[in-house]
Each structure stands twice: as C-alpha cells, then as structure tokens.
Design goal:
By secondary structure, this protein is α+β, with helices and mostly antiparallel strands. The chain contains two helices and three strands. Strand 1 and strand 2 form a beta hairpin. InterPro entries: MbtH-like_dom (IPR005153), MbtH-like_sf (IPR038020), MLP_fam (IPR037407).
Length: 69
C-alpha cells in the first residue's frame, strides 16, 4: 500500500516455519527460514496486519504438542 507523500521505510510481513510473524525491510534479503506473508507497507500497516493474523503467540510446535495430549 502506498500513500501520497509517504517516503518512509517500507516493510513486509514475514513468517517462519513456527508460524511466528515479524516485519522486515523490503530492501533487505529475507533471513534464512523466513518467507514473505504477502503484506508490504509502512511499519504501522505491517504491525496492524500481524495483529490481525497472529492471535496465538505460541510457536506451532508448542501448539501442536499440546493438541496431541
């Protein structure tokens, strides 16, 4: 999402195999083990997206281990 006059840093939402989310500068190569989630924008826009989709902060391995009990 681009806004007129918005020349600030651009970020993308990234996610790892444990379904943990973070934001990463668009101009930098993604770190190993992380993939782009699909959202790019300002820091605030990306943090809002993370707030929408990352409801359970436990890593995937912890969530699935608890479900198998």
């Amino acid at each position: 999402m681009t806004h007129p006059g918005d020349n600030g840093p651009r970020y993308r939402v990234v996610v790892n195999s444990e379904e943990q989310y973070s934001l990463w500068p668009v101009r930098r190569e993604l770190p190993a083990g992380w993939r782009a989630e699909g959202t790019e924008g300002s820091r605030e826009e990306c943090l809002a997206r993370i707030g929408e989709v990352w409801q359970d902060l436990r890593p995937l391995s912890v969530r699935t281990a608890g479900a198998s009990r």
